Amino acid sequence: MDMYERKIGDVILALDNISLSFGALKVLDDISFDVRQGEIRSIIGPNGAGKSSMLNVINGFYHPQQGSITFRGEKRKEMDVHKAAASGIARTFQNIALFKGMSTLDNIMTGRNLKMKCNIFQQAWYWGKAQKEEIEHRQKVEEIIDFLEIQNIRKTPVGRLPYGFQKRVELGRALAAEPEILLLDEPMAGMNVEEKEDMSRFILDINDEFGTTIILIEHDMGVVMDLSDRVVVLDYGRQLADGSPDEVRSNQTVIDAYLGVSH
Amino acid sequence: MSDKTLNTFPRLLASHAKLLPDHVAMREKELGIWQSWTWSQAAKEVQALAGGLAALGLKRGEKLAIIGDNRPRLYWGMTAAQTLGAIPVPLYQDSIADEMAYILDNADVKIALVEDQEQVDKLLEIRDRCPQIEHIIFDDPRGLRHYDQPFLHNFEDIQHQGQEFNQQNVDYLNKETRQSDGDEISIILYTSGTTGNPKGVVLTNDNVIITARNGIIREGLTAYEEVLAYLPMAWVGDNLFSYAQSLVVGFCVSCPESASTVTTDLREIGPTYYFAPPRVYENILTQVMIRMEDAGKIKRSMFHYFMEHARKTGVKILNGDKVSAKDSLIYKLGGFLVYGPLKDALGLGRIKLAYTAGEAIGPEIFEFYRSLGINIKQLYGQTECMVFLCVQPDGEVFADTVGTPAIDVEIKIDDNGEILYRSPGVFHSYYKNPEATASTKTPDGWVLTGDAGFFDEHNGHLKIIDRAKDVGKLNDGTMFAPKYIENKLKFFSFIKEAVLFGNERDHSCAFINIDLEAVGNWAERRNLAYSGYIDLAGQDEVYTLIKECVEKVNKDLSQDGRLGGSQMHRFLILHKELDADDGELTRTRKVRRNFVEERYQDLIHALYSDMNECHVKTQVVFEDGHTGILEADVKISDAEHFSVDHLTAVSEV
Questions:
Q1: Disulfide check for B392: which of A37, A225, B358, B403 has CB 3.0–4.6 Å away?
Q2: What is the ipTM metric for this complex?
């Protein structure tokens, strides 16, 4: 692919001095970083570093005891998962969380749920407005199916699909919400090289085609360094470094942590 | 529609747009919904594109390359080029960049019309080797937004420019269409060739259109046929069935959503006219059998009962022979309970005519489809004559012949057993290759097929033995026809590919590729664990399985006087599947014998020694063009062979 100038905008999400504990266990300790509009931002760190907790804080599932989150210039107050989703944050999970008995199409359709305006009675009647709305949503879902090249599994129950495809369907469902920020929790875990290449391609394409800001957790360092604009490094809840892939790569503290120097 | 003045494709298109304006010409599944274009809409699309190509400077006699999956816009690209008197050159879309560079350069391609980013990237990679390419037009803009090369154009932009061009130059397209004639070059199709570089087969409008029309007349096809265009556009068969014949008689062609959805699309479209190479029919049958084994007991016994009945009576009924009232009644019941639903599930429920060609088809496979009432027939032909040489007439269909000569085709067999023909489809020349043309076409218009064959004395049908140059002799003088034996091996569902050696040797030996799906399923049922092809191929149980197949073929051969001496003495199962990306197969999946022989010298040496195992290192090319090394210990097995006169084993094992 040719290099081109990417449009990276202002800060869309700022996390300041976030601390999160469960009882005596400090999971996140005074973490601060920001995310700019349109960038691919990665969070890396060894197991138990607090990466998934960080995502859970961002999408409102965990409530930090300290610190503030500013999303689109507004300081976030009470937050829950539903509100986060409605405000334009969608995510995928480390362990696939799809409806196994439902088809690919229906799974992705559930991602449109928040966009549906008709109530359950109108939908049951399926006439006029409800029908029109359904067709519009189906159109959007079909565009995603086309984008992710999963036409051949449109009607296959998700439980019967191989792992790599399930991951893709999950990504599709997150995309169906047309999110402003997409949180990806280890999208390439357990994949072979070819599947990883495909997934990387999709992540870049999503970022490029839809301008979606992406926050990525990933263990494969090669992938992280290739895809990311900026990387934040966590270790045991502490923030070790923050910067461009090159800066992070040459940071002595990071090297020590990754090479296993005793703490 | 046998008007002789309709001797070019633009004229045919214009005639349909006038006479069948609202008849659907083309369909494509887009975002899950079938979109269709009528003949009058198709004509408008073609005109806009032709104008755009003219605006880009494409002139009479210049070449337009077409690269991609079967897409309406790419088919329109062919007619648009022909409207200007330019020549379309379709290329295999899965070719790697290097292979494309040769053809693009050899054909002097000026503009390339491609499907998507994948193809654009390939062309950009080889651009400095094909400097004569002035413009690239792409159909699907996805991923191409940041490509700012001035010579890259979006299909829709070109059509807009074309509409403007057509407004400013009102009579330009008509004038160009009027200038074209039947003897003008219509298309260049590159044959993948089992040896050397691909050759560009130059075909005139008359070659293509007369042959296509003769095929339609012989089979009684109409404008109401349905065809699914799913085979590579660069292949002569697709050009005939999905392009030429559609334009000649006006039937509708549907393009699948993607290569991976063909089975679903087939079911939705339900074609009436269908072509598939034997391996497609084989795959479908294998899948049916695997799924039936997993079905419930009642369904399974019903399936087996009625299939047994179909085997006895179905073919007779299809051939129009008399069967007893009881048999006919049971067959009708079977049609309702089994055959109908099965054909429907396969998308073959409406088939009037299905062809198979390219390779020999296994008799069981052939009979399976015919017994279901699917009129599948064999066809023999080549690119050099626009496909049709021989076709099986209705009611005279046999598994081991390719039928009688098609309309206007003369066939003769020369003293060496090689098949020669003369027909209206005989190609103009090989592009820029007069030597090859001269060695293939005799001065009085006969074309050498390179195939060895003979006419069956009983029914007058042509039988093909092998490629003439591949027919050799063992050291003891026995005739050695490798393909004949390879086909016998490949009729076993466990064997996907086989390569035989024996010319100028004491006896014959074989390389085998197992069929991963069939053998994998077989292994699973026996609780044999395996991690992939290479692991499965090396297992002793699999060797025993394949040995049985080889020995059955040997036994079969021992009863065939002429070929009895070429029974296989030893064989091995190759550690990798033969692959076109590695150059071992052509793009149409034919084995490149010499290449394989050279590449696996060590293995062949081991076959003809008394070694039981051989260590090999093989370089392989992955889909993205990267290379890697594959290492394996390949086992070699002996096979029992039989005396030709009386069936007693004479093996040394």
A1: B403
A2: 0.79
